Amino acid sequence: xxxxxxxxxxxxxxxxxxxxxxxxxxxxxxxxxxxxxxxxxxxxxxxxxxxxxxxxxxxxxxxxxxxxxxxxxxxxxxxxxxxxxxxxxxxxxxxxxxxxxxxxxxxxxxxxxxx
Length: 115
Description:
It is a single chain. By secondary structure, the chain is mainly beta. It has strands at about 5, 10-15, 20-25, 35-40, 45-50, 55-60, 65-70, 75-80, 90-100, 100-105, 110-115. Strands 2, 4, 5, 6, 9, 10 and 11 form a 7-stranded mixed β-sheet that branches. Strands 1-3-8-7 form a 4-stranded antiparallel β-sheet, with no helix packed on it. It is globular.
């Protein structure tokens, strides 16, 4: 069982930056592939980025070059550095932990980008 708690969301102007964190507890963090998703009002949940090992990352085209996913296994924490934010990045951002047979979600943190 893994518990995930996101933090770092907020209101920012277009072009601004935010850093999201996802703190994990309850299991061995390094065993899990970690992902960020987001969900805007009235839209389906959208995958944002994945990190398996510290050097294996993937990004949705919509955030590539602006967002950076990272993890600190010693702190059981994943991060999402978001630069050059756009109004279309407005959403609830959720972290996900997955290993074979199990998937866990956090409650999410709201990111609002004003134009």
